[in-house]
Design goal:
This protein is mainly alpha-helical. Helix content is 62%, strand content 5%. Strands 1-2 form a two-stranded antiparallel sheet. Helix 3 crosses helix 4 (69-82). 44% of the residues are buried.
């Protein structure tokens, strides 16, 4: 049986994302992915064993603001989007839905999901949340409607500074994690497991969940590479003939 060639992610403007075709299929995947992402975050919160860096910050801010977890997620997303302006980044539909929907779903899930007392149940919520987060992240990224606010900030900084994905992401995540921890956010074994697991998860799932777009210009395809610490990508425009070779050689090193 022949190996399936991974579907490349396209470098599209916000308007191009809407015109790219297969919109119903992509919209369903986008909304489903963001919904599952919100559920996965709530699962990790209720596990109480440590959170991803941005969620550590969210929990820390919740302790000092009269806002719910989801409301802080939404507010933080729009603050991050303001940082896109000097980077000359334009948000797409996926970016805006990401900023709003994840927080709403997280709050709705937290209202229905209580924190268990048993360590086994808490561990199951943590591991299940990380796995679901990987699937959800690959789904919404693969819908090709643009990056989330936080991922877009990272890629914008990489483009503007010329620094590596690994360096920029590490500095951002450590800054956010440290700030959240100082504010009282929940860091722990779950933070470490997430950092180690989410990159390989999305790296494996993203090629399988990326929606193939109709080819309008066969000479302009884009292959994406993931960095070792996460799901977000820097795009490199390549010729059609080199897509398969690039896909086979993509590793977890930053491009």
């Amino acid at each position: 049986m022949s190996r399936r060639t991974p579907v490349p992610l396209a470098a599209l403007t916000p308007w191009g994302q809407l015109r790219a075709g297969r919109r119903p299929r992509r919209l369903v995947q986008l909304v489903a992915g963001l919904t599952l992402y919100g559920v996965s975050v709530a699962m990790m919160v209720r596990g109480g064993l440590g959170l991803p860096p941005w969620d550590v910050l969210t929990v820390g801010l919740v302790k000092h603001l009269p806002l719910s977890f989801g409301q802080v997620v939404i507010a933080t997303s729009f603050v991050v989007l303001l940082l896109w302006l000097p980077l000359r980044q334009l948000p797409g539909l996926g970016t805006m839905l990401n900023a709003v929907l994840i927080g709403l779903v997280a709050d709705a899930t937290l209202a229905q999901l209580s924190a268990p007392d048993a360590w086994a149940a808490r561990g199951a919520l943590l591991v299940g949340g990380i796995l679901l987060n990987g699937v959800a992240g690959a789904m919404y990224i693969g819908s090709q409607f643009g990056p989330g606010p936080r991922d877009g900030l990272m890629t914008g900084l990489v483009r503007r500074t010329g620094r590596s994905v690994r360096l920029v992401r590490t500095v951002l995540e450590l800054t956010v994690l440290g700030t959240g921890w100082l504010l009282g956010g929940t860091a722990g074994v779950g933070t470490v497991l997430y950092a180690l697991g989410i990159g390989p998860l999305v790296h494996t799932l993203l090629p399988r969940l990326t929606v193939a777009l109709p080819e309008r210009d066969p000479q302009r395809l884009v292959a994406m590479s993931t960095d070792a610490s996460g799901a977000t990508m820097i795009s490199t425009v390549v010729n059609r003939s080199s897509v398969s070779q690039f896909s086979r050689s993509t590793s977890t090193r930053p491009s």
